[in-house]
Amino acid sequence: MSISQDFMHAATINLLYAGIAILTFVILERLVYYVYLTTRRTRIAKAIASAVATDASSPLPDLPPGNDVLTTSMQEYVDVQRKGSVTRNRIEDLSAALFLRVDGRINRGLWILDTIVTAAPLLGLLGTILGIMDTFQALSAGGVSDPSAVSRGIGSALFATAIGIGTALYGLLGHNVLHRLGECITEDFKSFLLETTK
């Protein structure tokens, strides 16, 4: 069974539309998650500031309740230090492990954006090549009786490249914004760990 270039050209364009939908979903999901973490971060910062003002030598805050990764990680860190029998090396190992946990949770899904940004222009180029091949095959079968039909065929083929580049730009913008927002949250978490270390 042979698959026509026209079908493959249409399939690549549909794949790019699917990529745009996936990009939109991931960007919105991460934005909502980051906004939620930002509100939690503000509450944790207030609790730490209050603990520092009370006793700067032992700033172990009473954290607000929450099931997010920032609150649970900070609570684990504070609880271990409150026990008092943990060595300094163990505290440092724990803070590094908690940072990796938070960083992984915050950056989850960003690899999807990175992959689509890389693949979209290539997919668009493939769609254009297939579209041009289909146009040339139609010309060879029927002759060049209508030059406007050739222009339409080439224009339709180039449409795939345009969608591919547009998808990559959209994903790149979303990736960079999300990456910067996530970086701010992880930097603040690292600051929280340092501030609450006894």
From TrEMBL:
It is a multi-pass membrane protein. Keywords: Cell membrane, Membrane, Protein transport, Transmembrane, Transmembrane helix, Transport. GO terms for biological process: protein import. One of its GO terms (cellular component) is plasma membrane. InterPro entries: ExbB/TolQ_transport (IPR050790), MotA_ExbB_proton_chnl (IPR002898). It is found in: Cell membrane; Membrane. The keyword Cell cycle does not apply. The keyword Transferase does not apply. Residues 84-188 form the MotA/TolQ/ExbB proton channel domain. Its main location: membrane. Belongs to the exbB/tolQ family. This is MotA/TolQ/ExbB proton channel domain-containing protein. It comes from Piscinibacter gummiphilus. The lineage of its organism: Bacteria, Pseudomonadati, Pseudomonadota, Betaproteobacteria, Burkholderiales.
